[in-house]
Amino acid sequence: MLSVRPLVKSDYSAWLALWQGYLTFYDTQLSDALNLLTWQRMLSEDEPMYALGAFDEQQKLLGIVHMIYHRGTWSSGDRCYLEDLFTTPQARGQGVGRALIEGVYQHAEAKGASRVYWHTHETNATAQMLYDKLADKPGFIQYRKNLA
Questions:
Q1: 3-class SS letters over 63-124
Q2: Cα–Cα distance, 76 to 128 (Å, whole number)
Q3: Using one digit for the tens of pLDDT, what is the confidence trace for 89-123?
Q4: For residue 144, is pLDDT > 90?
Q5: Measured distance CA(96)–CA(3) in Å, rounded
Q6: Which residue from 42, 45, 74, 84 has the fewest beta carbons nearer than 10 Å?
Q7: In what order do the strands lie in the sheet with 79-87?
């Protein structure tokens, strides 16, 4: 039995372990200061950032998802950007990713958002099999230039 809920201050250690796993998956490292800042932003009522966790019956954290709300030019409702989603390797294929995405949908509906969207790497074929069942793939290509 899975439960999805907002992460709270006492979840920090469990979140950090999964966050580090996510960063490793994408061959990325961030400073301890940036990791802490990200965590603090997600818990702050003054920030448009949120984090949900999927927990098993023993309250072990199996997956995390981060989302950011922002305005858009094509609707009056905010957009919800699902920025990061990660499950423990042992929990994959057990509905954790689906539960987290559905948790984001519920969160976004409650906030009056007009859209939830996200990106994944083109090589992330396993995740895309799930994503194709839960959302439309509009065909847009992302361009970016890192400035810092």
A1: EEEEEEEECCCCCCCCEEEEEEEEECHHHCCCCHHHHHHHHHHHHHHHCCCCEEECCCCCCC
A2: 29
A3: 999 999 999 999 999 999 999 999 999 999 988 99
A4: no
A5: 9
A6: 45
A7: 3-6, 49-55, 61-70, 79-87, 115-117
